[in-house]
Write a structure and sequence with these properties.
Lipocalin; 11% helix
Length: 188
């Protein structure tokens, strides 16, 4: 029995690559898209979105897959309730009218079995534009807490908020918004 347990433990700690068309569900407890923006040139303000859902399909052997992510606009979090209400309002995200930010991609780039980029359509504030995400970290393996196969990644990009109709206070509050998305997804 000890040999079987040891073999299971050793096998579950080894890294594995996603294999033929594996489907994953985004883990909302470990997925928090965040942003940085210059505030009047004085400081870099940061925030994140607390509610994200979605599906990811990965097939590294054929270098294909899809990403379909939805971010709840009203879940914006900056650490300052007054600012969050302001950003949810009509002058910025207009969360009542546009309750979701979405990213949909069917063009994934791989280096061997490692996901390195995703090109897709970002829809923000009712405007859809192509966006390139650079993936600077990608790892799949057994999550030793949940005992489920999990993939995680960190993706980055920069967008111009005015391209999406969110141009209040530009250029005093910067037009360029740096985005970082740490994501974990569990195999279905």
């Amino acid at each position: 029995m000890k040999k079987i347990m040891l073999a299971l433990l050793m096998g579950s700690t080894l890294s594995f690559s996603a294999t033929a068309a594996d489907s994953y569900t985004v883990d909302p407890r470990h997925t928090f898209p965040s942003f940085e923006i210059s505030h009047l040139g004085f400081s870099i303000q940061r925030g994140r979105f607390n509610r994200t859902s979605g599906k990811v399909l990965l097939d590294p052997k054929s270098a294909t897959g899809t990403i379909n992510i939805a971010i709840e606009t009203a879940s914006i979090s900056t650490g300052l309730a007054e600012l969050e209400e302001h950003l949810r309002g009509k002058g910025f995200l207009d969360a009542a009218r546009f309750p979701e930010i979405t990213f949909v991609s069917n063009k994934l780039s791989f280096n061997k079995d490692k996901l390195t980029a995703a090109d897709g359509i970002l829809t923000l504030h009712g405007v859809s534009k192509p966006v390139h995400l650079t993936i600077n970290h990608f790892y799949c393996g057994m999550n030793m807490i949940t005992m489920k196969n999990t993939c995680g990644a960190n993706a980055t990009t920069t967008i111009k908020r005015s391209d999406f109709g969110v141009d209040k206070y530009v250029p005093a509050v910067a037009d360029d918004v740096a985005i970082a998305i740490q994501i974990e997804a569990t195999k279905d």
